[in-house]
């Protein structure tokens, strides 16, 4: 199922700023905030 | 040196670029220049002008056209000798062979606008102006379109009249014809971005930060569901900073719930703010889809 798109440029926000912004958005009520935050900040794979 | 008239320099009897009928009009963004004829004859240059630089728009074709240039003004002296006193500046009326949606787009864009226009002749050659330093350009003039309202019963090919009023007789006097080995109109059909229609459904709500927008391929009833946040381009505003579509709802038949916010820590637009936005889809630096500009003013 398609998720609501969040602008990648919001990766500039700190975790706290992003959480505050996310909570202010009614259209994101059913969205998974952590999943969206992780998508904005993909972790780099550690070289073994 | 006295007032000697010039004398024709030689003649090309064996071949030459014929002054054929005009088949199409090419609108060039004012200031667009080709450094030399080789650039005019370059497919790559025109393709980039159409879908990267946005400096060229090519009409589909004409159904017919009329040259409306005035005749020279002829004055008769008391001696009964005649002399022409003016060089009427060329003008023309083109009947575009185009669909209703593109005509509507042109009506909104071309109202007495300054443009530079080149003409594709039968056989594909391009009739254009040349600057004193040898660069090639469109003829400077005013393009205008006015709708006659209703479709004409017998002259259905005359429903999209576009007038061109040249600005300078000298540009035409010094015009050039560039023979081409490809058809620019056919090239445009492949490489011009697909036109999108972006329209508001309701107003921007400064409490929610949301405006509903309908997106269709122009003239298509089916909505276009492929827009992403990065496709929204902000062109103007009342000096707002960091404008962005921060969330984009899942579209339903081209209807999107669009959150537009400003500032580094995103906040809703306020009453009194205005923005101009459009959809521009880029694929590897090439514009594949392009919408009209949409002006949104926040009043509530």
Order of helices and strands of chain A: EHH
Largest sheet of chain A: none
Question: Approximately what portion of the residues of chain A adopt beta-strand conformation?
Answer: under 5%
Percent helix range of chain A: 25-40%
How far apart lie the N and C ends of chain B?
Answer: 74 Å
> Biggest sheet of chain B, in brief?
10 strands, antiparallel
Average pLDDT score of chain B: 92
Task: Supply the helix-strand structural class of chain A.
Answer: mainly alpha
Average of pLDDT of chain A:
88
Number of helices of chain A: 2
| Helix residue percentage of chain B | 10-25%
Report the uncertain regions of chain B. Answer: none
Tally of alpha and pi helices of chain B: 5
Quaternary structure annotation: heterodimer
Q: What is the gyration radius of chain A calculated from CA atoms? A: 12 Å
Number of strands of chain A: 1
| Structural class by SSE content of chain B | mainly beta
Strand content of chain B: 35-45%
Global geometry of chain A: globular
Using CB atoms under 8 Å apart, which protein chain pair has the greatest interface?
A-B, 17 and 18 residues
Description:
The complex is a heterodimer of chains A (48) and B (300). Chain A is globular. Chain A has two helices and one strand. Chain A has 48 residues and is mainly alpha-helical. Chain A has helices at residues 15-24, 33-40, and one strand at residues 5-6. In chain B, helix 2 crosses helix 5. The model of chain B has no long low-confidence stretch (mean pLDDT 92). In chain B, strands 1, 2, 3, 6, 7, 8, 9, 10, 11 and 12 form a ten-stranded antiparallel β-sheet that branches. In chain B, strands 13, 14, 15, 16, 17, 18, 19, 20 and 21 form a nine-stranded mixed β-sheet that branches. Chain B has a two-stranded antiparallel sheet with strand order 4-5. Chain B has five helices and 21 strands. In chain B, strand 8 (126-130) and strand 9 (136-137) form a beta hairpin. Classes of the chains: A mainly alpha (48), B mainly beta (300). Chains A and B meet through strand 1 of A and strand 16 of B.
């Amino acid at each position: 199922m398609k998720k609501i798109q969040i602008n990648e440029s919001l990766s500039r926000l700190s975790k706290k700023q992003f959480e505050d912004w996310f909570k202010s958005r009614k259209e994101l009520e059913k969205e998974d905030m952590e999943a969206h935050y992780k998508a904005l900040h993909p972790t780099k794979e550690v070289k073994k | 040196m006295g007032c000697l008239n010039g004398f024709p320099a030689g003649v090309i009897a064996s071949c030459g670029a014929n002054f054929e009928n005009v088949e199409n009009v090419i609108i060039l963004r004012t200031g667009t220049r080709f450094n030399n004829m080789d650039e005019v004859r370059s497919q790559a240059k025109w393709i980039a002008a159409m879908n990267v630089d946005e400096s060229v728009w090519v009409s589909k074709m004409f159904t017919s056209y009329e040259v409306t240039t005035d005749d020279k003004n002829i004055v008769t002296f008391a001696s009964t000798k005649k002399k022409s006193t003016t060089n009427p500046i060329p003008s023309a009326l083109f009947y575009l062979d185009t669909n209703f949606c593109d005509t509507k787009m042109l009506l909104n864009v071309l109202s007495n606008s300054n443009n530079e226009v080149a003409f594709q002749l039968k056989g594909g050659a391009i009739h254009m102006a040349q600057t004193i330093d040898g660069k090639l350009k469109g003829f400077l003039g005013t393009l205008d379109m006015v709708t006659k309202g209703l479709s004409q019963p017998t002259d259905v090919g005359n429903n999209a009249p576009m007038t061109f009023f040249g600005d300078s007789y000298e540009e035409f006097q010094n015009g050039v014809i560039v023979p081409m080995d490809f058809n620019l109109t056919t090239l445009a059909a492949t490489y011009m971005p697909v036109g999108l229609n972006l329209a508001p459904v309701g107003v921007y709500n400064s409490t929610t930060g949301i405006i509903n927008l309908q997106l269709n391929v122009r003239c298509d009833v089916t909505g276009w569901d492929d827009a992403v946040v990065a496709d929204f381009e902000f062109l103007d505003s009342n000096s707002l900073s960091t404008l962005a579509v921060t969330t984009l709802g899942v579209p339903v038949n081209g209807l999107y719930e669009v959150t537009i916010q400003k500032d580094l820590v995103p906040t809703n637009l306020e009453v009194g703010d205005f923005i101009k936005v459009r959809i521009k889809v880029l694929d590897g630096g090439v514009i594949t889809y392009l919408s009209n500009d949409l002006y949104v003013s926040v009043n509530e």
